[in-house]
Amino acid sequence: QVRVDASGGGSVQAGESLTLSCTASGLRIEHYSMGWYRQAPRKEREGVGCINYNSERVFYADSVKGRFSISRNNEKNTFSLQMNSLKSEDTAMYYCAAGSSCLGPGEELKYGWRGQGTQVTVSS
User: Fold this and answer.
1) Over the range 62-96, which residues count as b (16 or more CB within 10 Å of their CB) and which as e?
2) What confidence score (pLDDT) does residue 19 get?
3) Which of 5, 11, 16, 88 could bond 115 through an S-S bridge, CB–CB 3.0 to 4.6 Å?
């Protein structure tokens, strides 16, 4: 069974940092583009960003550009989301996903391989 599960969420104060991790099982991420998206209560899913298989292309949503950073470690089959200068509007359930390509921001919303999310709560 393929799973792509996020972890590392928590509760922080505005301005602080948090790093989320994504672990894939049943799938070698080196063959896939990877991405993060989030969903806040009563809101639609929002793409955060994606990274292609060899890290040559990385795209971010305007709302997180300059504050969040996506990286991957194909050897360890993991990838991560470094979140700095967190704001209350970043509060959401965060999910990671795997897909075929990363050609622009928002493409992560189309990815088919997903899993369990992790909650991030930012207090102002």
Assistant:
1) eebeeebbbebebeeebbbbebeebeeebbbbbbb
2) 98
3) 5
